[in-house]
Amino acid sequence: MNIEIIELILITVLTAAMPLVIAAIGELVTERAGVLNLGVEGMMIMGAASGFAIAIMTGSSALGVLGGIGAGVALSAAFGVLTIFLAANQVATGLALTILGVGLSGLIGSGFVGMKRDAIAHLHIPGLSDLPLVGKLVFGQDPFVYAGIALVFGVAWFLKKSRAGLTLRAVGESHTSAHALGVPVRRIRFLAVLFGGACSGLAGAYLSLAYTPFWAPGMTAGRGWIALALVVFASWRPFRAFAGAILFGGATVLQLHAQAASFGIPGQALTALPYLATIVALVLLSLNKRRGAVAPAALGTSFIPER
Fold first, then answer.
1. Is the pLDDT of residue 20 over 80?
2. Of 121, 285, 289, 304, which shows the fewest CB atoms inside 10 Å?
3. For the chain, what percentages of helix, strand and coil (3-state, to nearest 5) are there?
């Protein structure tokens, strides 16, 4: 196996992992604030459909990205109003959000099925991008990849070092105590939900504008649910979420290579390989008591301030 093939595999793994990284980091912030949003899949597919539709109609990828983010924010805002201000059940509302997103995306994207457009251009730095093994991997990615990596580092710093991040974590651990100290619990939770929606919409836009630059119904293929699982796998820590997404990306690439090699294994079984790898990782994590995931204490619990 020569250097070019190794570099290609590494690039493929990273790009396959990136929509999961972006969506998982957004959901991680939402859950650290104590809100469980199961609508990631719906927000992702709405971001994919809206981003692609706007990019086609305007001819601008930048507007398409903003459209994808806006679609995710709009759905998350509806979720936030229902669950945070009206105290609706978070699990039921999140599932309804996914169903709504899948239906709306089919409606929005119905006129764009089969259309293609050029993918968002990759960075190219003369000299650096041509380096063996690391050139294209480090200096030749599309903007989404760099944004996703920056998001991981930024959120890790925010949650651990910043005062606002510590306040958000306090809300997720004990919203009653935070409220008693004068912290605006519902405002913080609503902003965290909007951030999660923006990240999910961005992840969806990445799928339709860069990863596979076309629109097809159901193109998220369960990635939103995997992003939810990655948050648990990561024990609500950004860098672990990134590592888990890379694991899933590697399983995806392995599945593609296995299908190309014709090992005699049914294609359906190979397609399920990445999801099976995620389930196995979650099971192993739950069996390891010393490193088991500890969820925010107030996760999924509605906050109703005393009047």
1. yes
2. 289
3. 70, 0, 30
Q: Cα separation of 274 and 93, whole Å?
A: 27
What tokens appear for 209 in the block?
């504008």
What are the extents of the domains in the chain? 3-220
Pick from 230, 226, 228, 225: which is nearest to 244 by CA? 230
DSSP 248-259: HHHHHHHHHHHH
Question: From CA 29, how far away is CA 197, in angstroms rounded?
Answer: 11
CA distance 240 to 282: 13
At 286, the pLDDT band (50, 70, 90 cuts) reads low
Note the pTM of the prediction, 2 decimals.
0.91
Residue 176 amino acid letter? T
pLDDT value, residue 96: 96
Confidence of residue 261 (pLDDT cuts 50, 70, 90): low
Burial class for 165, CB neighbours closer than 10 Å (0-12, 13-18, 19+): middle
- Both structure tokens of 14: 């990273």
Distance CA 142, CA 210 (A): 8
Residue 116 sits at φ, ψ, to 5 deg, of -130, 155
Helix (H/G/I), strand (E/B), else coil: 179: helix
d(CA 297, CA 35): 11
